[in-house]
Give the backbone structure.
Amino acid sequence: MKSINRIFYRVSLIFFIFFSAEARSEVISVGASNAKVVVKVFSSLTCPACANFHSEIYYPLKKDFIDKNLVRFEHHPFPLDLAALNAEIILRCNVDNNKRFQFLSKIYKKQRVWAIGSDIIKINDSIKKIGTEIDLSNKKMDECLQDDKAQDKILSQRIEAQKKYKIESTPTIIINEKKYSNKIDYLKFKKVIEKNL
């Protein structure tokens, strides 16, 4: 009986570690895992305000806090349309976290180029063009776009975020599990970070 309990315990432990690691890998993050401050950003990749947040807040935040292991930054998907969903799928198509953040930066920077019009085929081609800049092949990206599980995971994360944080608009920023509601201004944002350190 004791040996059965030991086996059950070990299997349960392996199961827990595997699925915890899988859940963590779905979160696209940068910064120390044990950072005192965690900034979660729920955004849609077609949202101009999200692109503005990334350019105005993310870069100085990275320099002042993330690179010093004081803050962990997490990008959470909250796609508001099919174009944003497909861009999220391509974002997760690369397993390298640095490449993911390179893609995220490029997709926001070039948002006005790719996120226009109603022809999803042309939009997908524009997204894939950006993907090739970070060494993703067209074949790999097509495989990712055809993967129903990848789509389901992103949509599930969106539903869970909606339930937990009552998201009404993008970007929604959560700092140590508290909603940040001020306007996008780095000096104000920085003060909130410093209060949490």
